[in-house]
Each structure stands twice: as structure tokens, then as C-alpha cells.
Amino acid sequence: MTTTVGARTMRALAKTRPEPGAELIERQVPTPGPGEVLLKMVAASICGTDYHLYSWDTWASEIVKPPVVLGHELAGVVAATGSGVTRVKEGDLVGVESHIVDWTCAQCRAGNMHNGLDPAIVALQEPMGNAVHAAFVEPIEGRSVAITGCGPIGLCSVGIARAAGASLVVATDTEPYRLQLAREMGADLALDARNPDTVRSVLDATGGDGVDAVLEMSGAGPALTQALEFVTRGGRISLLGIFPEPVSVDLSDMVIQRGIRLYGIYGRRIYDSWERTQALLRSGRFDPTPILTHRFDLADWERGFELIASRHAGKVVLIP
Amino acid sequence: MTTTVGARTMRALAKTRPEPGAELIERQVPTPGPGEVLLKMVAASICGTDYHLYSWDTWASEIVKPPVVLGHELAGVVAATGSGVTRVKEGDLVGVESHIVDWTCAQCRAGNMHNGLDPAIVALQEPMGNAVHAAFVEPIEGRSVAITGCGPIGLCSVGIARAAGASLVVATDTEPYRLQLAREMGADLALDARNPDTVRSVLDATGGDGVDAVLEMSGAGPALTQALEFVTRGGRISLLGIFPEPVSVDLSDMVIQRGIRLYGIYGRRIYDSWERTQALLRSGRFDPTPILTHRFDLADWERGFELIASRHAGKVVLIP
Amino acid sequence: MTTTVGARTMRALAKTRPEPGAELIERQVPTPGPGEVLLKMVAASICGTDYHLYSWDTWASEIVKPPVVLGHELAGVVAATGSGVTRVKEGDLVGVESHIVDWTCAQCRAGNMHNGLDPAIVALQEPMGNAVHAAFVEPIEGRSVAITGCGPIGLCSVGIARAAGASLVVATDTEPYRLQLAREMGADLALDARNPDTVRSVLDATGGDGVDAVLEMSGAGPALTQALEFVTRGGRISLLGIFPEPVSVDLSDMVIQRGIRLYGIYGRRIYDSWERTQALLRSGRFDPTPILTHRFDLADWERGFELIASRHAGKVVLIP
Amino acid sequence: MTTTVGARTMRALAKTRPEPGAELIERQVPTPGPGEVLLKMVAASICGTDYHLYSWDTWASEIVKPPVVLGHELAGVVAATGSGVTRVKEGDLVGVESHIVDWTCAQCRAGNMHNGLDPAIVALQEPMGNAVHAAFVEPIEGRSVAITGCGPIGLCSVGIARAAGASLVVATDTEPYRLQLAREMGADLALDARNPDTVRSVLDATGGDGVDAVLEMSGAGPALTQALEFVTRGGRISLLGIFPEPVSVDLSDMVIQRGIRLYGIYGRRIYDSWERTQALLRSGRFDPTPILTHRFDLADWERGFELIASRHAGKVVLIP
């Protein structure tokens, strides 16, 4: 690792100007201060947030002020540690938790347990954590579960639900490529949401009752409408996909009189759930490998963003 | 009780024609069949459903086919029992549970424990059960709670929340008469929802955080909007009031990113909760007496319906 | 089915005298009264309770007054129905729930869904229900679980835990034959409890932490001692095995200071859990077939009891 | 505060030698390092642990190596802050959390909210936290609760249970002085545990059912035996009192077949519960004042320890 610390510069994929696009730049390698850790990246996956910044849509342009370096789904090896760092040491492979809420350095706490895993899987810590949080707000063991929306978080949810003992796992999306990935992740049923029989098919698969739980990962109004129609009386819907605008909901008929519970899921982690996911990963019962559809050298980053735009990709991983 | 059974006819308040109004009629006293119980009414309170039938609004005219007898919030004394009835005996004071889901005759199970209570309170079993169900889907002990809507169920909720150890009980309504009743039921703060400072006042009362739980009892869109604004990040809203039409909800900003849980509450009972309410009633920590604002002889039923229309009543009880 | 109803007598395995043993007798075929159902048995499995009665130990001799007919783990086909029976009809295959708590005829409610299952599995409804109840008092999805005691209920628990998404399933017993069945039911690790390294092995398999949950199915003091040693700090133990006498427990060091939860599990069913097990059975994720080690004609009943005495059997099924 | 920081020495009650007793000594006032806070004590209450050290019993002599300064139930005013301290400032009144589990400085987080409370109540943070943790592992709103053992933590539990909406609060102890304090804290029933009718009285007060929850705060074998007898079928017992030796428990009859849940409660805090207690304190619904039976100048510390030995004290507070 000495040579890494000695290196003067490193590459970074950056948003340098307030317009569409990104740029590969050279940056100084920093020296870690007290309590800080210098990581040498080994894998970074492209998040939807990165894509928003790349395409510079309204949301991105309102929130972000260039220049910024892209990338927060990361696996790295500890290259140097500042004073006071005791939980990780040089050479440890760690994932990164970007929602830092206090000084406990959560990413470091979990660090050592990653050794031996594919770094691309380690980089997936954030979407896996989101999926786990959405799935586990209530037990899913022995329940029937539908996942609406098969982006990377939705696909992780399919695998988590399967590993966590769901009796039936249904996935819906409008993109056949993604539905195929859902099948590879263990969905018993992968349904094209544009098909007018979708709700009927879910009801049929559950003896007419509907599913016990829906994990809404699409942020699409029609998906929520379907979810409310095929969730069982007394069931629950976890809402994680971000809807671009307010949604009209028939609260009386579809929520209140059917005793439905709606959970707003925000990205912060519940460590207990995260530890259980680690246990499932280690045991081999949950394997996100099929989601990792593409790996490119960092220099080929633009191909990765184009693939995401085409919706013909699971997760795109960049190898520095 | 012999005389009761011997009586040939009884009075009944009935909806006889598909138009506004109601009528006091004479009916034959029935003989209880196997597993059935004949009750001699001692108190009946007017439910919102009764008022819908009386005023014959769209909802009522679509659901109900006259002739029907009004009234389902009832306290009665067992006057005769059919064969096979073992859980109650003549002379027992019982409340009635109108949502019969199986043969277990839930109303009778609870029957004996009512002896000694004011029959008007026994008649309140249904709205109290609704309030309990809405309140107890999550613990409220030590939490701050707001009740939006101070009809009889909302007023019961104020008292239940207070008795169940809420650290702060806020009530909102647009009718000062009802806010005064909320204060009598134990609200720490009773706020006119039309006041533009309402949300601000709730936030101030909770150190800026907002309340841990909202019990939505109004079915009014503006009340839900306020609830979403003054519920704390990570809090929950129980939805019981029926909204007359679909509601537009900003799911992303107000529900998902704030980690809110929405519970559709439908009227079925959780016996565990009901038994706890009985315990609170018996201990005197929950006392619905202030809600019972008016008692009339059955012959004066029309005054009761007029009072409800004026919104200057809590619960109106008719004494047969 | 007509011929069945027409039959005058039927065979029954009965405890006729207050001494060890049992006897195959002839009994009149009864006529079902109002609300009753006549079942023609197709499979009956021998329960531990039956074995207690057969061997006439202290427990049995204090509780039971002969003559009684043995057997309560039953699958049967509805042969005739009394008046008022609407939920099942002639020809339905049903399992039997012997803990009747009210008039809702729980066994019949579940009846129709058994059609198509192996009747021997239907007869297992009771031990499966026990296993489910013990397992699901807290979530087990993604948790590490140990089952101490691999009799039929313990073996069901192994399969349920595996199907319900446990990240690790450990089984312990003192009988190698049973440990082999545990492996067939999906245990990741099946350990001879007599081995002095047993606790060490469980700790090693969990990175030194111990298991999140123990399902105690043996009723053996040394098994509980091991359970308290290999359950993780903050973990839980479900107690279902009946201990023949009071047990000395180091509450302070092993329970209080380690934050352990102990759940006494009694046999009544939680229908929600039962329905989830049905769903797991239907989906094929839980398959109790390996537990059904022996099937005999009813006439050979004594061989079944001898096998149970030898502890070289899973579940013994008698076919009338 | 300048003068405080300027002071060269301060008094401290210390255990200086491995034998019974304690000693008031002079110590240098330290200078807070990075992330540290210097507190000027305003109140300190004597904990059972302090008494163990004072009397130098087996437990104390095995765990502690003199010299050590006594006292960990503390309220103090921030007198100086080290570099990097941002959450508190000079003049803030704070309580102290002695179970430090990470770097998040939990004691400081809660600091500001104490302003305005009696410092003696602030010093009670630890026993109140223990009581809350034991009480709130399951909801107690609307439940009947018994507290066995009326030392300071038990007395806090009585008040917490009362404030949190328990429908009935029973307290047991063997010391009439403490039972009187339990009544002042809101117990509906305070029973001398030596009375042979104690179990009978608790059953009578609950209509024969027994209490829904027991909070075991005594660490006395006979109290646990009574608890198992008067807890209702399906109820729960929180175990917090430390038993000096292993206890023989009839698991089969008293725990398993009655479906009882036993929770080992260890002292770590659940911040959610702690925040709810703060809310109850602020609202005035929980007021621990009656527990604070004695206040002495620090110089009179020995009288405090003698009072605790006599069991004729609630909490003894020393004012530096």
C-alpha cells in the first residue's frame, strides 16, 4: 500500500460544469486527517443519483453545485489511516456508507467482514441496504411478496425476499430485460406491468387473496395503482421509489376500508437488518451476482451511463 | 323479564322509504332461535351511519334498501335466550358488536363484564372500539399524539390516548363546541384547524419535532394535509375518517422521505385491545361521560338527529 | 362415501386399562349431530402423547382415565356432515385441530386447502403448528437459529426455519439417527449434543457470537444449559419441550446480564402463522416428507410404538 | 464558571483501600482534553453499586481495584469544554450516562433538555432508564402491572407504569417504608410480600386473571415465585433484579404451559424509550420527587450510606 500513498494523483469521475455530461479528471491524493481513512477504490457502481447528475435533470440542477466528484457506491481497500483510527487497518476491504449520521464511522465498523467477497458486491452495500430496509419493516418469512419496479434496488429486493423465506415472490416491470434479471434473482413470477392481466395474474397466483406485502420500487403512479389492487386486505406496501409528483390515492376504498399499511421508506440503515443481510450473503442464500451485468474500466465510464439510459443493464460497475 | 317476553310489540326507529327522514314504528317482539338472544334495549346512541341513513345522502342510497331498522350502538338486557346459549343469562347487561365475523358471538363473550356500567357507555362499545383500534396499532405510551377530528370517535380517542399514557394530547377540529368537549376529555391542547397557525402550534408544543402519532378521524382533506405537516419524521398516522373522494398526497416529500407510516384502520376489533379498554373503563382512567352530551326518550329521536346536523352535540343517546 | 356411512363398525386403537399397552378394538360408527362432521381416517401419526399413554408413565396415569381412544394427529375425508355444517362437504380431505377453543370449528376452516397433499402430511398439522408457533414468536428471516432436540416437532422446526429464511440452521440431539434426519430437513450443521465441543462448534459457526434464536424442543436440562451458552447476547429462546422437573437456571449471569428473552410456548395455534405454513407447504419450500420415516397398517400399530421407543424413527404413520 | 475552572482542587468520595468504608479526599481539578467535558457536580445520588463498594462485599471485592472515586448517578453543570465539543456549552445542566458504548457522547446529546429540572432528578437518569427499559419491552398502556421490589428502580417503575397508562399498578416489597413510597408514586395496591395472601390479593384485583406484566426488581427468589403465580396466562415478566445465585424454576408448569415470556433486562438504554420518559417528565405525568427522600451535604455522606443499609430511604442525594 505504500506505493498507493506515495502516488501523487488519482483519477476521478467528476461533474465539473452545470450542464449534461461528466469528465474524467486528475485529483491530488489526500492525506487522511485524525479519524479519517484513505481508501484505494477497487470497484464503484453507478447509482441512479449519479445518472441524474450526469443527465443534469431538474432535480440534479436544483440540488447540486458543480464541481463534485461522482460515485458513492464504493468498495475500497484501506490505504492509509489517520490518527485515532483503530477499527480498520491497511489492507482491509471495506464498503462505504454515505449517510453518515454521527461519529461512529459505521462504514468502518462493518469493514473487516467484507474480506473475501467480490468487491463489486461490497460496492452494492447501499442498494442492498435500501432493499433490506423496505423488505424488513414487517416480517416476510412465509408471506407472498410483490416487487414493483426491477431496477437494481428492486432486483436486490427480489433476492432478499427469496432468501428471507417469502412463500411467493412476484416481480413487475415494463422492461423485459429487467424481468429476466428478476427471474434470475429468484422471482417465481415476473410480469410485464403493461399487460392488462397483471393484477389478475397476481390474484390468481395467491388463490384470489392478493399478496401479503408489496415493495414499491418504481416511483411510477400506475405501479402504485396496481399495488393497491393486488395487495391483500390487511396487507402492507413499502414505498421506496420516488414519485416525481403528488399522487392521487383513493384512501377510503383502497387503504382504509381494506386495512392497508403504507410505509414510507427512507434510505437510512437499520444495523440489525444490515447484519442479517451480511449473514445471508455469507451463507450464499442471497447472491446479487446476476444484478452485476456490466463491468468496465473507469476510462469507459460513458458506456456505463449509456447502458443505464437504455434500461438494458442491471448494475454497472466501474473498476478504477 | 317475563313481562318483556310476554309483550307483543316493541317500538323501532326505522327507515321505511327511500327518501330523507325516519319513522317510529311498532314491530313484533321476536322469539330467539337456537344460539340467539333477545335483548331489551336500555340505551342506543346515534351513529354517523344512522345519520347518513336519516339524511339519505348518496352513500346511503347506494348501500341500503329500505325498510331497515336503525341503530347498532346498543346496550340491552338479556330478556330471553334460545337453546344452546350458555355465555349469557337473563338479566345480563350487554353491549352489541355488529361486525359479526363468525359464530363465536363476540358480543356475548364480553357481556357479563358490563354489569354496573352506565348503559349509555355500554352502547358506546363500537366508537370506543374504533378509537382503540386506531390508537393502538402502535404503542402510544409516552408519545405525543394528535387527533384530527373531534366527532364521537375522535373524542373517545382523546380520552383513550390520555388514559394510555400519551405524553401530550392535541385535538383539532373546526367546531369550537367540539374542541371544548376535547378539552373535557383530557386534550392538553385543542386547536381550531381553520387557524393558519395550527401546524405551527403543534410543532411548538413538541419542541419543533411534531407529534409521534396522528389519529385522523375527520375524513377531511385539509386535516390530512395538516397531519402530514405536523407529524414527526418517522411518525405514524392512523387513517379512520372516510374521505368522500380520492386525495392527492405528496408521497415523496411528505411520506417517503420523512419515513412516515400510514395505517388504514377498518372497524374490526382486536379483542386484546378491547379488553384493555374495558380495564381502563373499570379503573376509571378512561371515562367517556363528557361525550354523552344528550339523552332523549326514543319518542324524541328527531331532536337527536337535528342536534347531530348542527354539530353541537357529542353523542346523542336514545332511551327506549 | 355412502358405504362408509353405512358401515356399522370401525377399528380404533384404544387404551382400555390403567396399565402399559394398548388394544385394537371395534367401535360403532357414530352419526354426526348438528354442527358435527364424521371423518373417515386416511392417516394418523403417533404423537408423543400417544406414546406416554401406551407406556403408562406417571404423567399419563395422573391425567388420563381409561378407556380412551388414542390418536389426535389425523387426516380424514369427510364422510358425512350434521345439520348446519356449511364449510366442508363430503369428500373433502381435512386435518384435525384438537385444541378446540370455541365454536368456530377451526379444523374445518382449513379443510379444503389440504386437497392434493399427502394425507400423512395433513396428519402432521399439530407438530407443524407447534414448530411454527415456537419459531415465529419473533422473526427468523436472516437470523441464525439452533434447534435443540430432533424429535418430530424439532425436525419440523428445522425445515420451517430453513424455509423461512434463517441464515444458519443448527440442530442438536444425542441420537445420530435423528441428526441425519435433521440434515435431510435442511440443517446446515447437525451436532451430537454429547460432544464436549458442541457449544464451541455453534459459536464457531456464528463468528463467535452465538445464534440469534434457539428453539428448545428436547425438554432436557443439559440442552437448556447449552442453549443458554450458545445463544447470542440479546437473543431469544423458545421453550417448547416439557421438562420433567424444575430446572435450576443462572438467571443473573445467563439471562439478565445477557439480555435474553425466554418464551414459554404452549400448543395453541396462531392462525396467521398456520396460514403462512400452508403457503410454504404449497410452494414446496417446506417439505416434511423426510420426517415421515415409517408407515404401517393400523394392525401393525405395536411396531410403531416400539420404533418410537428405540428413538430410531421420525414420525410413524398408521394407515387405517 | 470561571472560578470553578480556576479552582485547583475538588472533593471526591473515594474507595481508597480494599476494606469496608469510604473516604472524602481532595483531588486535582482536571483539564478537559479533546472531546471531553468538565462538569461541576450539583447533585449525585447513591446507587446500589456505590453501597456494594462501601460495604465491600464479595461482589465488590472481586470486581473493583481501589483506589476509585465513587458515584455515577450525577447531574452537573458544564464548567469547561475541550476542543471539538459542540453539543454542550458552559452552563448547561446535564445528566451522565455511564454506559458509554461508542464515541457519540450520549450524555451530551441529552444535555440541553435538562435545563429547568431539579438536578436531583437529572441525577436519577440511570435508574429511570433502567425502569423504562424494563417496562417498555412490551406495551403497558391499558395493562395491569405488578412491580416486585420497591428500591429506587422499582419505585421509578411504579411511576412510569402509572404515567404510561397501566390500568392497574401493584407493588410488592417486604418493607412497609418502601410500600408507602410506592403508594406515593401512584401504586393502586402496595402489598407486603411476606403476607401469605399476597398472590391471592393480586388475583382478586384482576378478576382472578393475574397481571399482564410483572417488573421484577428485587432479585429475591420468593418474589420470582410469587410473580410466576400472579402473572396471567400469556403474560410477561421483565427480570432486572440480580439474583445472588441460580434459581430453580418450574419451567414446564409455570412458564411453558402458561405461555409466559421472560425478558432479561440489562442496563443499556434504548434512546427512543429514554426520550419518551423525558417527555413524560416534562409533561408532569411522571414525577420521581417522592423517591428523593433524603438530601445531604457531601460531607455527611456516611449518613446516606447508613440510611440505605436501614432500607428506610428511597434515593439519597448528596449535594457537593
Folded structure, characterized:
Chain A is of the alpha/beta class and 320 residues long. The first copy, chain A, has 13 helices and 15 strands. The first copy, chain A, has helices at 2-6, 48-55, 58-63, 106-109, 119-123, 125-135, 152-163, 176-184, 198-205, 221-230, 251-256, 271-283, 301-310; strands at 9-15, 23-28, 37-45, 68-69, 73-81, 93-95, 144-148, 168-173, 189-192, 211-216, 231-239, 247-249, 261-264, 294-297, 316-319. Chain A has a 6-stranded parallel sheet with strand order 9-8-7-10-11-13, sandwiched between helices. A 5-stranded mixed sheet of chain A has the order 6-5-3-15-14. In chain A, strands 2-1-4 form a 3-stranded antiparallel sheet, with no helix packed on it. In chain A, helix 6 crosses helix 7 (152-163) and helix 9 (198-205) runs parallel beside helix 10 (221-230). The C-D interface holds C 219, 224, 239-240, 242-244, 246-252, 255-266, 268 and D 219, 224, 239-240, 242-244, 246-252, 255-266, 268.
